[in-house]
Amino acid sequence: MSPTAVLVSCTELPTGDGDDDAVVPALTSLGFSVSWAPWDSTFDFSSADAVILRATWDYAERRAEFLAWCESVPSLFNSADVVRWNTDKSYLVELLDAGLAVVPTSLVTPGSSSSFPSSDFVVKPSVGAGSRGAARFAEGASAATAHVAALHAEGHTALIQPYQSSVDSSGELALVYLGGIYSHAFTKGAMLGSTMDSSGLYLSEELAPAVPPEDAVALAEDVLDAASALLGILRAELLYARVDLVRGADGKPLLLELELTEPSLGFRQTDAGAVTRFASAVRQQLA
Predict the structure, then answer these.
(1) Where does the ATP-grasp domain lie (predicted)?
(2) Which CATH architecture has domain 91-100+166-286?
(3) What is the mean pLDDT of the chain?
């Protein structure tokens, strides 16, 4: 009997945004019976051998409900524990404390006062997806205080980071790992100021294939090792991971985000073998 794999989406994007289109035939070629289903649908996820989070991009407004659903699914990838840790960007502070090169990050919980960097900076909710709720401000901008207050009024912790100007010229570099092993990389243009996709769930991105330099790969490897240690798992237990890096003022790479929950994996920006590597990693997880 063929193993079953369900690619999990949301109601607004029931079959994803197109990036995973080639994943279905790749899984099918390795013996899987594949279907799509929104996470909050009536689909019987407990019947599947592999339940793979792909486009659950409405979770930010319903995180508690989403986490409860994740914990109810026996064969979820990545696991519910990983999702709980990764869907709150306070994990960046944990990685900073572990000695990783991370974009300086401070958290402002509801009821606390804000302290802003002395240069341009970004304010975003600690729980969010697709850059929704993120905004850039100039030094001392009073509007930043109002933005933090608005996030607090919605129950969010605010995350504050100095703006990395390298994004304007070279964007972000995303390194993709499948089953803990490097697969491919792509660049992402600056998202702040971009237009919202028609689904209303994420900002549109300009993506392009990339060959990552050695220092970026070295940092991405360190980030995955540190995150796995914090989670108490092996790297190989992560079906997928996307490490988003930017260049700091000194030209060295910094971690901007570690995406372990539902990231676009840039299959349209890389070689055709990437989806086969993904399908093989799914088989590895089941083994």
Answers:
(1) 92-287
(2) 2-Layer Sandwich (3.30)
(3) 92
